[in-house]
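Appendix B. One record, verbatim.
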Amino acid sequence: MRVAIAGAAVLCLVAVQPASAAWQTSNQGNAAAKAVTASVPGGLTCVKSTGVISWTAVAGVPEYEVYWSDKDQGGQGTFTVVTGVTTTSYTVTGKVPLRAKIRSVAGPWTSTQSAEKICS
């Protein structure tokens, strides 16, 4: 009876797949777990006349990626990306923004979704 139970336990261990992460990073090194939530910023506004894009801060998120486009194209236009923004607003100069998107960045992690807005 013990042989059958031991054999079943080994079979269960072999059949289990290794764990995978729900996020990715290209950084290498020793792992130290720290809970970080890179949530989607809320309260996104975009004003064509001033070029100001603003949003509500996400607690614990040190920076943001701002995406803006001066083309409408039914949501398919190319975006200009501004990285490393540490405030909750960005001003587009020399162009008129028609659409804006914001993503949270916490170290090597970036929110998988973004807030998007048609500028008014």
